[in-house]
Amino acid sequence: MIAKTLALTLVLALQACGGGPERAPENPAELMARWKAELIAADEAFSDAIDREGLSQWSSFFTAEGSVIQAGVGEIQGAEAMQAVMDAAAGAVTSFSWTPERAEVSTGGDMGYTVGRYRTTAMGTDSVEMVSTGMYVSIWRRQEDGSWKVEMDLGNPLTDPTPISSLDPTSGAGGDRP
Description:
Blueprint: H1 2-16, H2 28-53, E1 62-70, E2 74-77, H3 79-89, E3 93-105, E4 111-123, E5 129-142, E6 148-157, E7 162-163
Parallel strand pairs: 1-6
Antiparallel strand pairs: 1-2, 3-4, 4-5, 5-6, 5-7
């Protein structure tokens, strides 16, 4: 009886000190807002890395099994295959950036998605700089270390590639950032 009482006292003392099983969040809405902000920050860091260092960083933001679905190409699965496609495009792409507009996270905080707009500038076959814009959805998975990595990225072009020289600068089409 003394051993049971001592064990129960020890468990209660550990829980009171913050040890033991993780407690439910006191405010689930604040926790969800924090997770969404983390996911937006991860997506912005991904775009910033590509903007700074180029497409060579692409697959480092994906899980090993991650995939990309590209218009006219289909699904490209696995980090090695995705990186090969990005490396092949790197010579023509002069800039590629995106801006997440919103994020949603599962109630468990282990999966989420971001939605936003992207802008790609690339040299056309006749050495004319072309711009195209679109929307994307990226599906993310939280990793064991708490970071987020992309499971799947889907892009939807909204404009055909257009020569930058023909854009009306006051139209807002193809601006500096999506």
